[in-house]
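Shipment paperwork, digital attachment
Item: protein structure file
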Amino acid sequence: MSPAPQLELPRLGFGAAQLGNLYRTTSDEEADGAVAAAWDAGIRYFDTAPHYGIGTSERRLGQRLAGYPREEYLVSTKVGRLLLPGPGTGDDMASAFAVPDDHVRHWDFSEAGVRRSHAESLQRLGLHRVDILFAHDPEEGPTEQAFAEGLPALARMREEGLVRAVGVGSKDVGVLLRAVSTGLIDLVMLSGRYTLLEQAGAEELLAACVQHDVGIVAVSVFNSGLLAQHRVPENATYEYAQAPAALLARARELASIAEQHGVMLPDLAVQYPLRHPAVRSVVLGMRTAAQVRSNAERMSTEIPAVAWGDVERTDPGAATGGTADVPR
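Attachment content:
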């Protein structure tokens, strides 16, 4: 088995974790507005997962895409966590989602589990097919099963025409390198390790992706908030904790470069990963129509070449990477 012909991805994708009530409830009105604004902005790639709100994101996304022509958009979802009946007596905030715990996650990267996860995702989405399936966070579950059974199962499903492309989504560069080396996958979804702020930890992975013709979908490109505002506040977060002083200084240096060239720090952040030939799309989490419009505008902002030159000439300093514990 070999990877499928390259699937063309849009530069900007819609990350639907917020439709699963990531951190707080997303109202139906917010969800309606976000998906409609995404479509109006020309966004045609939508990413979700069973993990996001234990099925809530898939259901809400599918409901809102139902009115659009299926041949005009791409959907990716993920496998590895089956959803089983839960107690229904509390919530899922321990996993960062403001939803009832009427289901629980159960790791399963067996071929039967992968195929069941795919079928159940189609039911929740209300779709006959998804375009991309990612093995989700194999480093957090039964890693060896994911490689011995899960990835070959995904490749077979691609060969059977059930999906157009398969891959692995993770924050763990080592796991992604191992996945690329199998020759079975088309894409990796890389969380937080190749951003305007930090690149060193991903250099080997990017080179391997070029060598094996594996595309990268970059996520968590704001490094959990540090690059999300042009004026970097003292309480800015990195890896969902208080950003160290050295990283605050680096983010402000990058903001100053942006300002010198008439753009803003988040403009640089959303476009930076796409400068590498292996990166095919940047997926951003979006909760509201206003966030969608802002992100689409940032992606279309023209960045002067001299600005990128100034970024490359500065010292990244202490931006050496970490492990982002956030839904991807």
